[in-house]
Amino acid sequence: MSIPTFAPAADRPEPVPPRIVLQISVTEGEATRRAGIVLTGSRGILEADGETAGFASRDLWRVVRDLLPDVSHLRHDPAPVAGHRPEPPEAEGFAEDCRAVVAIVTGIEDEEAVALRTWLATATEVYAVEPGGPVTAAPGAVASGLVWDVTGAMERLVHTLGAAS
Asked: What is the pLDDT of residue 1?
């Protein structure tokens, strides 16, 4: 299996069930790791480091969390964000303090991406990259963003299939 893309597939020999696709890129220091995930109904397939593994879709966060650097505030489970006030990082030394960059693209195969999210992690904080620049993210923001984006992709997929029938 090759990592899926969002570009239209050419001349498929047989119909393929609709699939939600995630592309994950994690940069830590000089190393970048890329992984692809395909969700079809209740099953998922992960391709990373030249290996393919199946999993239950309900385990998506566990699978993605295992791809992330060992930085606890990147790997928090989804959590409510009440009371969190996003703030920009201190400008001085911020770039030097970044330990990891995580980018996740979520979409429906053969269509445009539904969402792209990027986070930056220092030793003590996670920052969500927003149009105005990075801002602090609440604990669990990576997981919550993933759940939100996959849910949005599923809703779009259901709407698209309903309109086609």
From this structure: 44
- Please report the DSSP string for the chain in residue order: -PPP-SSPPP--SS-----EEEEEEEEETTEEEEEEEEEETTEEEEEETTEEEEEEGGGHHHHHHHHS-S-GGGSPPP---TT----PPPSTTHHHH--EEEEEEEEETTS-EEEEEEEEE-SS-EEEEETTEEEE--TTHHHHHHHHHHHHHHHHHHHHHHHH-
The Cα 116–Cα 145 span in angstroms is: 10
Name the pTM for this structure: 0.79
Longest dimension (CA), the chain: 56
